[in-house]
Amino acid sequence: MTCRYEKTDWRDVLYTSVRNTVGGVADAAQFLQNRRGRTMHKETLRAKLRGLEGESVSVEIADLLTEWMEEKNREDATDWIKALASGHGLVSVEVDGADDEAEPETEIFGLCTKSMELTALWGKLSGLLIDAIKDEVISATASDQIVAQIDEEMRALSNLRRNVLATSRLGQPALA
What we know:
GO molecular function: DNA binding
Radius of gyration: 20 Å
Order of helices and strands: HHHHHHH
Distance between the termini: 61 Å
Mean pLDDT: 85
Low-confidence stretches: none
Number of domains: 2
Number of strands: 0
Number of helices: 7
Oligomer: single chain
Shape: flat
Helix content: 55-70%
Strand content: under 5%
């Protein structure tokens, strides 16, 4: 039987990310064993990640798995944190790092670019919503797509916020 893993359940997101990382669950279990100095069999880790009866993932293990995935350059290493936050009515958004050497003109250009990107993203979100509600029901697949689009827009808004603050610290005059 094939399990369907939800993009909105933090445990499913973590398990999927670990499975899709080079080396998978076996390599992750070995990493945990090396870091914690305690034996962790791959099937024990798999049971914890799947939330089988009596099994659970501690924050320490989830954090170490995130570190392991980041070392392997997984872009989805922190997606489980976003899903966990979302499940509690919170939002976790990645923000691009600030450029400490930014020139005023670069930051002003960044503001304009981010504004245009947001306009394009809003159009995509509107399209997803229109498609999803045609039959007056939002499916799990459509929900996943809409939530992913909203998350992308929140990241873009957070980056715009960072650019605005960076520009104000540079003492830039307001755009004409």
